[in-house]
Structures are given as C-alpha cells and as structure tokens.
C-alpha cells in the first residue's frame, strides 16, 4: 500500500519477490552476532570472519541498506516491515554464501524482534509478553542460523564506547541512551528468544579475550 508513496518500498518488494520461498542452508555454519550498538559487534564479526575465512553479511543487507534512513523516518509499522523484509532478503544471501564458507552475520531476525517487542511494550521488563509467548519464536519460514551470540556490556561501558566512537547516533541509540527501561526491555527480549536462543557473551574484556570466548563457543556448537 505504501509503495505508491515510497518508491523504495517497491524496490524492496521486488527483491523480496525474487527470493525463493524456502531457503536452505549450505554445508558451512551460519553464526549470528546480536547486541545493542557499541557492544563490539563490528570488531568481533570482522575478527571472526578473518579467523574462519568466512563471509560477513549484515542486516539489513547491502542490497537495501542504502534506504534505511528513508524507512527509519516512516511510521513504525512501515519501518518494521522494512527490517522484516530485509531478513528474508538476507536469508537468500545466507543460503548462497553458506555453500562456500562459514557465514558471519551482524544482526538478523532477533534484532528486528527484540526492538519491535521493546517498542510495542511500555514500562518495565515485567511488562513484556510472558516468557513462553510466541513473539519470541523464530519464524518457521526463515532460514535458521546454527548459533546466535548476544554480546553484552554494562550500560556505563557501552555509553563510554559510544562517546569514544563519536559517530552520529541512530534514533534507536538516542532512545536507548535516554530511556534505560527501553534498553532493559530490548536486552531482556533478546534473552527470551527461542529456537534458536541467544548464547550470551560478556564483551567487556579485551578484544582478544572476547574473540577467544566466541571462537570456543563456535567450536563447541558448530561442526567444522
């Protein structure tokens, strides 16, 4: 419905239509990294890619990420639809890449779901949908990763890193900073995701230490 008003929406839908309905994974492992901004995802994903000679992909995928700012200014349902569509477009890229090498992904479905749940709920963590609610379930028709790692750092350290980076803040980042309840809802939503669940990794130590922990978890959970 919004394609008439937003030309980019039509382009996203065209890409989505070209994706095969059932994506199946290749023989190489697919590892997703999740977490709030400034938890070290960019650094860790790059290091893991280099160590495993893998392929690094991001959500939203490169084919639509240039339109992110357009959709971030749209009403919430349209914005969320853009990110959800992005996951399915990304799935077709994962399916192809995982036939060639290990696939490392900077955010995937869990991000879309966690931010949506946190935005649609107001109040404290106890106001979130109950633990067994279907909102925490992975979609049946979306290609599943082998492992999801949730990078966490304490709030003060995260803000310090953000200031150190000096990058322009996203709308969500501004919200996270201003509203600690929102941040708590996002992190708790991540922790409640199932099938696959997130394995939590403390990303506060040095890059080398975090990478070591991450590689141990990959070795434990993924067949190489």
TrEMBL record:
GO cellular component terms attached to this protein's record: mitochondrion
Compartment(s) where it occurs, according to its Swiss-Prot or TrEMBL record: Mitochondrion
Chief place of localization: mitochondrion
Catalyses which reaction(s): dTMP + ATP = dTDP + ADP; dCMP + ATP = dCDP + ADP; CMP + ATP = CDP + ADP
Pfam family, one: Thymidylate_kin
Domain Thymidylate kinase-like: 33-212
GO process terms (BP): dTDP biosynthetic process; dTTP biosynthetic process; dUDP biosynthetic process
UniProtKB keywords: ATP-binding, Coiled coil, Kinase, Mitochondrion, Nucleotide biosynthesis, Nucleotide-binding, Pyrimidine biosynthesis, Transferase, Transit peptide
SUPFAM superfamilies cross-referenced by the UniProt entry: P-loop containing nucleoside triphosphate hydrolases
Enzyme Commission number(s) of this protein: 2.7.4.14, 2.7.4.9
Gene Ontology MF annotations: ATP binding; dTMP kinase activity; nucleoside diphosphate kinase activity; nucleoside monophosphate kinase activity
Enzyme class: transferase
Family, as annotated: Belongs to the thymidylate kinase family.
Xref: PANTHER family: THYMIDYLATE KINASE, UMP-CMP KINASE 2, MITOCHONDRIAL
Protein name (database record): UMP-CMP kinase 2, mitochondrial
Gene this protein is translated from: Cmpk2
